[in-house]
Amino acid sequence: MNQKSLSAQNKTHKKILIFLKNRKISKVYSEFSSSLNARENLAVAVSGGPDSLALAYLAKCHSIKNKITVKFFLVDHKLRPESTKEAVSVKKLLQKVGITCKVLSWKGKKPSRNIQSLAREARYSLLAKECKKNNIKYLLLGHHSNDLFENFLIRVVRGSGLNGLVSFNKSVKYRDEDLNILRPLLNLEKKDLINISKIVFKFFIKDPSNINEDYKRTRIRNLLYSLEKEGLDLKKLKLTINNLKDSDKSIRLYVKKNLKDNSVHIKKKNTCILNQDFFDQSHEVIFRSLTLIIQKIGKKYYPVRGKSINELINRITLKTFVKITLGGCFIERANETILISRENPNKV
Fold first, then answer.
1. What is the number of alpha carbons within 13 Å of residue 90 lying toward its C-beta?
2. pTM to 2 decimals?
3. What one-character DSSP code corresponds to residue 111?
4. Which of 197, 227, 250, 262 has a CA-to-CA distance to 189 between 20 and 30 Å?
């Protein structure tokens, strides 16, 4: 880089970092930076909302201070007529603070049902492909503490078990791919992120789906707001979630031990053999162990529904149980053991 270009870059960097002189923004950046180790090949998912714009700014500061490369991607779902225009506006807005953002479009026929869930899956898929193309191993998302609470209540309403209630983590592996999804804002409040977007960008997009009560997440968000007005202490709710996570860690250790001591995986045949002691554990340990095995043998991204696993456990305890198919697997009794093998072993 020549002297002129270097001088222009330094000027741009100073223009970006100057906002860190704001006490509130500096405090948020410290929290963000401390939860995120300086790594090469980072990517940021941007949407145009205040959360993701704040994340984009914080990540840009992080890249400057730590001299690392960060890529920025925005997914245009094309679910609304104005979405492409909004994506272009966000792209231009980010350019003003030295951020180059690539727009990824969700092409093809759009769903008429289960829209939010399918759109989310499409977004992750597009982002994952782009990360793979750029040899990026870490993708940052703008989820914050309010999202954590919303997700918890949604799982409560669904009747999720402990594993489901605490599934919203700071770091998670995306499928079987070499991509880690990170949520460095999970300890931060939405109001602090809105403040950053207002000061740095003086703009953010308000997604109409966020106020559409046809969506469960919106209804849960409004319920959470009402509970706060009635005196719900979110700090205590977070403490409850953290306590549940500690309990979940303990159960995971027992599940790991059960899998190690009481099951044998024959890789060549993609078959798992479970001995009698496998089922001589607490229900939760058996439930999770069996779910993981069926998911692995059946090569499924999503686990089998909990209701089906519970029914399977009940059937296996009966002496009359012989054979059943579930989650792409054959599950059968062989003398004193249970064999689990793939239903279609030649299917890719």
1. 30
2. 0.79
3. P
4. 250
Taking residues 73-100, what's their average pLDDT?
91
| Candidate from 24-38, 294-308, 321-335 with smallest mean pLDDT | 294-308
Give tens-digit pLDDT for 248-262. Answer: 999 999 999 999 999
Cα dihedral 260/264/269/270 (nearest 10):
-40
What is the tens place of the pLDDT at every residue in 131-145? 999 999 999 999 999
Report the Cα 203 to chain-centroid distance in Å.
Answer: 26
The predicted pLDDT at position 22 comes to 95
50 within 8 A of 197, measured Cβ to Cβ: yes
Both tokens of 12, joined, read 């741009």
To which residue do tokens 């929290």 refer? 31
Are 120 and 75 within 8 A, CB to CB? Answer: no
Give the three-class secondary structure for 106. coil
CA distance 153 to 158: 9
Structure tokens at 108: 């093809």
Distances (CA, A) of 65 to 35, 52, 185, 309: 15, 20, 18, 49
Alpha-carbon span 249 to 228, nearest angstrom: 29
